[in-house]
Amino acid sequence: MQARTTNNTQRVHLLSTPIDCLTLQETVAKIEHAIDNHQQIHRTDVNAGKIVMMHEDKELHNSVINADIINADGQSVVWASKILRKPVPERVTGIDLMEELMVTANEKKYSVFFFGATEEIVNKVVQIYTQKYGEKISAGYRNGYFSKNEEESIAQQIAQSNADILFVGMGSPQKENFLYQYRKTFSNVSFVMGVGGSFDVIAGKVKRAPKWMQKGGLEWLYRLIQEPRRLWKRYAVGNYKFIKLVLTEKFSRKNN
């Protein structure tokens, strides 16, 4: 299936993955325009691990490439884009974009539906934002634990909330596939995006890396230090496969 394209946006193809050349503020501007004009826009992002997964999971690949905005989340993807001479301006992380959009939502009176994480975590996220911005900022919330046969009713719940924005706090490929599969069910929600583990960070369960590590592309190392037993294999295998993909593409070009 062909990837969707966005108007007036330069899109490069990196390791068989389309990526939009957008900064954080340019991304926010496009989203704000879509919400103000009642147009649904689906945003996703890719990092090294997800690009590797997309090469092995056709459903995830299809769900990602059909998003309206695809940001580079992960400094390794930005570095790879420069190595392959298809430069992306900067990384746009889900949590940074989410925080920017919450400020915009408060200013423009958008409402937000929060979906994902445990009941305790998502409830705390809603409490934090309603205390900061007022009750009307929340259109509703739902934890991320459900069976397959509950998906349709959850999508209906989101649609009936009349939210302007939907944040989905789940892992990959679950969040990408859910958003793609039910995009028509909640087509009245102008902006939808997955935010991974951002709810855990907002709620204070997980600490984010210091700014200097974020800027240096070392957030993965900070997470690895926090949870070495759970993450060492993922990063060791994932980083090796990503580097192999980059080198394969670079040298295949030289030979063509």
UniProtKB/TrEMBL annotation:
Name the Pfam families for this protein.
Glyco_tran_WecG
Give the highest taxon in the source lineage.
Bacteria
Q: Which InterPro entries match?
A: WecG_TagA_CpsF
Q: Which UniProt keywords apply?
A: Glycosyltransferase, Transferase
GO MF entry, a single one: hexosyltransferase activity
Tell me the PANTHER family matching this sequence: PTHR34136, UDP-N-ACETYL-D-MANNOSAMINURONIC ACID TRANSFERASE
Q: Mind telling me what this protein is named?
A: Lipopolysaccharide biosynthesis protein, putative
